[in-house]
C-alpha cells in the first residue's frame, strides 16, 4: 500500500510546527553565544559608541542609507580606525546648552537659566573608515554565509516583492551592510552585489520581512524600535531560510543577539509577528511556485 500524500492543509500545518520549532531554537543559540569571550569582546567594543535619537537616525539614513555604525572623526581614531581622506561627513544634530542671564523687569533681579542648543555635528560611517595598522579589531559575531542558493530563494522572494510594487536591485554597498530598503515611500530594496548566493538569499528575506512588517501604510516610522525591528526581520530570515533548507545560523544568531542586546526574552516576544510574517511569505512562495509549474505545464 503506497504512502498517502499530505493534503494542502496538512502541509501548511506541518510547516507551521516546523517554523515554531525553528524560532524556539533562536533563544538557545543566542544564550550559547552570550556565554563566549567573543560576545564579551563585542560588548566592550559596542560600549564605546553613542546611541542616536530617532530623528538623528532618520538624518543618517537620508544621507547614507547603508550606514550601520557611525561616530565622530576622533572617536573612530580611538577605536583604531581612520576616516578616509575625502569622505563626506554625515550631518546630525548634537545637544548642548548655554547659560543666559535675564533681568526681571519688575524687581531688577538677574536670573540665570540654561537654554538647550542643537549644534550640527559631523559623523562618519564605518564604511568610510579603514583599520589603523597594528590596532586590534574586534572579531565579528555575525559571519557572512558562504555557499549556494540551491532553492533559488533570492529569485523567488524578489519576484514576490516585485509583484507587490518593490524595486529590487543588486548594487555594490560599501562597508559591511548587506542590504537595505527605503521606508520613505520609494519602495526600494537593495542587496549587495558582492555577496555569496547564500548570503544574498538570506539578505533578500531579511529586507522582504522589513517591507512586509515595517513599511505598511499604518506603521508610523517614529514608533519603530530599531532593535526590535532588526530582531524581527532577521528572525524571519532565519526561520524561512531554514524551512527552505538554508541554515543561516552562522550569521543570523550573532545579528539577532546584537540587536536584542543578548536578551532572549526580547527575542521570544517577537514570535507572533515573526511567525505570521514567515507564513505570509511562505504562502506567497507556494503561489509563486504553483504559478511557475502551471506555466511550465502549459508551455
TrEMBL record:
<dbReference type="Pfam" id="PF08401">
    <property type="entry name" value="ArdcN"/>
</dbReference>
<dbReference type="Pfam" id="PF06114">
    <property type="entry name" value="Peptidase_M78"/>
</dbReference>
<dbReference type="GO" id="GO:0003697">
    <property type="term" value="F:single-stranded DNA binding"/>
</dbReference>
<protein>
    <recommendedName>
        <fullName>N-terminal domain-containing protein</fullName>
    </recommendedName>
</protein>
<feature type="domain" description="N-terminal">
    <location>
        <begin position="23"/>
        <end position="124"/>
    </location>
</feature>
<dbReference type="InterPro" id="IPR013610">
    <property type="entry name" value="ArdC_N"/>
</dbReference>
<dbReference type="InterPro" id="IPR010359">
    <property type="entry name" value="IrrE_HExxH"/>
</dbReference>
<feature type="domain" description="IrrE N-terminal-like">
    <location>
        <begin position="165"/>
        <end position="237"/>
    </location>
</feature>
